[in-house]
Amino acid sequence: MSNVIKSNQVKSGEKVKLDNSNFKLQKEEVESPQSEEQEEAKQIIDRAEDKADEIIAEAKEKAEEIKTEAQQEIEAEKEEIFAEAKEEGYQAGLAEGREAGKKKGKADIEEQFANLLQNIEQEVNNFHQNIEERKENIKDDIVELAIVISEKIVAQKLKLDETVLENMIRKKLKLLEEGENLKLRVNPNNLELLQKVKEDLIMTNGYIEEIKIIGDEEIKDNGVIIETDFGGLDATVATQLEKIKSELLEVNQDG
User: Fold this and answer.
1) Between 9 and which of 5, 74, 169, 228 could a Cys-Cys bridge form, CB atoms 3.0 to 4.6 Å apart?
2) In terms of Cα–Cα distance, which of 77, 82, 25, 19 is closest to 222?
């Protein structure tokens, strides 16, 4: 049964599943797609978070304005009711009636004011909570978008440089220490390229006895699975991007 192992655990006779997202090119070669897409994804997220913070600040300021205006309206209404209650008590012609009217009017107003103010406070708190929840959702959506964009950028760069796959394979073959009979599974679009460099790969890695190159429709362009008899390592572009996505989402949750 095949196993999946880490790259630092690869030994003779193991199956190594690889992709070019882990390959670091020399100075004269293109830069690492994974490194560039991580930086671009981070920049997208930073810009979007700044914009989200700006929107949230404006929304909170507006909520405070609404609260202040409501309080002012309540105060005005309270004064009006006080005046009406006072007038009603005066018209009654009795000191007891005036005092009772004042007290009752004041109590009613205070109760109405307290209830209304409590409702406003609750609405403002709910508004702030909704804003924070939307901010978290926005950040997660931004991560998803950044990963999609990054995947397209990486795929385009890989198409523009045919040497990426070859150089990545050369680097990963150095992990093997003894003579091996290897199978390289690649997308059929990459078969011709690897057939051209097959003999050179064997010659430059003296411990390799034979390399069989097999087309596999399930493997994306510029991806490769290096198989031996015992196991492998999944290092495809899709896997790396999924790992980056998980890390970014974890950072958002911690933040």
Assistant:
1) 5
2) 19
Neighbours of 231 (CB within 10 A): 19
**Cα separations in angstroms, 5 against 134, 168, 212, 250:** 40, 18, 22, 24
Element containing residue 251 per DSSP (H, E): helix 237-254
Is the pTM for the entire model greater than 0.70? no
The model's pLDDT over 3-31, given as tens digits with 9 standing for 90+, comes to 444 444 444 445 545 444 444 444 344 44
In three-state secondary structure terms, 230 is coil
DSSP E strands in 75-221: the ranges are: 180-186, 208-215
CA 134 to chain centre: 14
CA–CA dist 213, 191 (Å, integer): 7
Quick check: 166 and 197 in contact, CB under 8 A?
yes
